[in-house]
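From the methods appendix. Each design record in this collection lists the tokenized structure first, followed by the designed amino acid sequence. Records were kept in a plain field format so they could be parsed without special tools. The example shown here is representative of the layout used throughout.

RECORD:
FOLD TOKENS (408 positions):
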């Protein structure tokens, strides 16, 4: 499966919040739903569970996920709900540990009797078998090997699966010839992402000549920068926390007089990060697997309107995790609508797995094939770059499509 606006749209916000319904499904009819024996389903509402890291090591990154969920659900309810029912949810904190993830899933499914789950946790795999055994539908951020394994788990893009040559194509088009990988030393999942970047560049003849582990607070940014310089690389690949680890290393590189032809980071498409980090992020390129905010258009305006109306606590809606949560919530609502007036968990999964073209109301370009995309890597990406002053992103390559690489 494939495929991270401005705020001056007050008039559009008023129009969209009054008249726009579900992104992918259209306005649900204003009817009184019939009784239904399914857990979490009443004549008036469908109750879901949200399991995400409100605390813990990854909480800062995932903090705005709930805002994206709120925006999409608020938008759907303003349009009449799904098949005549209002969507509500319970939430549970998962501080990023397997034990907490498993307990949280049980509390929501057995304690709250929720119909399905939306998950934003690096340890979602801990509860995956439990949820699959009960046919519980799940949507969310697909981090880890569980997501492509279970048919009841849905996401519009996967971090696992095979490698693609799209990143290599892009770096080659920008003149890169030798790469150095700056990677975290603490996460196997992030390490896998780094391996895929290396394979992608290798597929077009660009070698990775150095891999530099870096942990903020434990390693010296200047020492990491010097290792990159000593490698002779003209391209830097970054699979570190863009908000904490990347700016000091880039600052150290520039202080040493090193100019990289390409700086490609797997994360960091966040205007709030630019506001905080400023010039340190200048020139950084981030791959995006949905329509970039800067592309504008009705789909982006709908998203921004929903964030303004239903998640006003987020002053800057142009944040990657919020958009990802918004789209994956739309994906869940798509399944609910297709499951009919008396949805069942099995019926939800069967219906959503039959979809051959899904674009989240124009936010995914080109559309994805859910029926044949379980665990398949994203091959089409857009690339955005922080400008020379680190104050805004621009689109430098939109909808570049590559190919999946054969397994090694």
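DESIGN:
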């Amino acid at each position: 499966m494939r495929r991270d606006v401005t705020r001056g749209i007050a008039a559009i916000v008023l129009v969209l919040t009054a008249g726009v319904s579900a992104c992918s499904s259209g306005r649900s009819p204003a009817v009184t739903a019939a009784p239904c024996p399914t857990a979490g389903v009443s004549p008036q509402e469908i109750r879901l569970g949200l399991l995400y890291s409100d605390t813990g090591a990854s909480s800062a990154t995932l903090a705005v996920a709930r805002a994206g969920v709120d925006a999409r659900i608020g938008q759907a309810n303003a349009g009449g709900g799904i098949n005549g029912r209002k969507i509500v949810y319970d939430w549970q904190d998962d501080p990023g540990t397997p034990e907490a993830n498993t307990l949280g899933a049980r509390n929501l499914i057995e304690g709250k009797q929720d119909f399905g789950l939306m998950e934003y946790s690096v340890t979602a795999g801990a509860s995956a078998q439990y949820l699959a055994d009960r046919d519980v539908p799940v949507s969310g951020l697909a981090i880890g090997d569980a997501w492509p394994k279970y048919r009841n788990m849905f996401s519009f893009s996967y971090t696992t699966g095979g490698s693609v040559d799209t990143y290599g194509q892009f770096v080659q088009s920008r003149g890169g010839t030798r790469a150095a990988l700056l990677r975290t030393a603490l996460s196997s999942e992030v390490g896998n992402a780094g391996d895929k970047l290396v394979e992608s560049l290798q597929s077009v003849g660009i070698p990775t000549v150095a891999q530099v582990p870096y942990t903020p607070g434990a390693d010296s940014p200047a020492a990491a920068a010097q290792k990159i310089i000593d490698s002779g690389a003209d391209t830097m690949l970054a699979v570190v926390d863009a908000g904490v680890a990347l700016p000091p290393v880039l600052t150290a590189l520039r202080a040493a007089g090193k100019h990289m032809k390409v700086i490609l980071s797997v994360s960091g498409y966040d205007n709030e990060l630019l506001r905080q980090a400023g010039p340190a992020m200048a020139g950084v390129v981030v791959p995006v697997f949905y329509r970039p905010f800067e592309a504008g258009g009705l789909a982006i305006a709908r998203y921004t309107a929903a964030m303004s109306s239903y998640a006003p606590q987020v002053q800057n809606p142009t944040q990657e995790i919020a958009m990802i949560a918004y789209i994956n919530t739309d994906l869940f609502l798509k399944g609910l609508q297709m499951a009919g007036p008396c949805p069942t968990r099995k019926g939800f999964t069967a219906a959503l797995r039959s979809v051959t073209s899904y674009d989240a109301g124009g936010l995914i370009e080109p559309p994805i094939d859910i029926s044949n995309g379980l665990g398949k890597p994203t091959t089409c990406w857009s690339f955005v770059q922080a400008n020379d002053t680190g104050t805004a992103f621009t689109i430098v390559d939109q909808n570049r499509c590559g190919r999946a690489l054969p397994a090694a």
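APPENDIX NOTE: The two ends are 20 Å apart (CA to CA).
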